Amino acid sequence: MYRKSDGKLGFGFFRLMNNAFPNFARDDKDDVDLSPKQQDDLFKWQISQDGDPTLLNENSFFMGGIVELASQSQKVYKDLKKSGVIDPTTLTAHTERITKHFANQLATISVHAQRKLIGLLFFWEEELVRWRLLDEEEVEIRKAMEYNGEDHEELRVALKTVEAKRRMVPSLRGVDPSMVALPGYEERRGTTMVAESEMARARGLRER
Q1: What pTM, to 2 d.p., does this model score?
Q2: 58-90, pLDDT tens digit by residue?
């Protein structure tokens, strides 16, 4: 309870959270964006997938650091599909479908995790815009190569640059792609193996 400017008593949820759990409440209010590490981890996980890397999957929220267990991530994925934020048919994410009911729809995770989840969804939406622009750039380069020949050196370099940008983790954006060691198959496979190991460990903890 607190005293309003008109002298009446009022109740504020965030005031209560700040008093009871000051660190947690402050984190909820201000820390809604993914950290650079969370962005990189999510990106590496997505590009390690055998299927469409643009589609978030059951373990994306675990790999992105939103939840601590793979089972929680799978529940979040299910709830997002049920709410329509992840289209149950196309499996694409739609941030415009986030409504005032989001907190109730994702009630199995904390308020902090809900806010971080929204941050992840908007971050991934921006990544997809970037991806589409790179796809369009690649199409234009390939059209030019059809006209000028595939051995055109400048176009070949431009095509390699687009591919390098497509695989570059967020924390390295703005760095010359030629100066960065990009993740190849073995590193992407390593990301998958780490995720599988973490999920196996999580299953073991639940079964104890």
Answers
A1: 0.70
A2: 999 999 999 999 999 999 999 999 999 999 999
- Please give the C-alpha separations between residue 134 and each of 64, 69, 158, 172, in angstroms, as whole numbers: 23, 33, 11, 16
8-state DSSP, 5: T
Please count the other Cβ atoms lying within 10 Å of the Cβ belonging to residue 34. Answer: 22
Gap between the Cα atoms of 44 and 40, Å rounded: 6
Return the DSSP state at 97.
G
Q: Which amino acid, one-letter code, is at 73?
A: S
3-state secondary structure of 2: strand
Cα(171)–Cα(192) distance, rounded to whole angstroms? 20
Task: Return the CA Rg of the chain.
Answer: 21
Distance CA 18, CA 12 (A): 10
How do residues 121-144 score in pLDDT, each as one tens digit? 999 999 999 999 999 999 999 999
Return the number of other C-beta atoms located less than 10 Å from residue 110's C-beta: 13
CA 29 to chain CA mean position, Å: 19
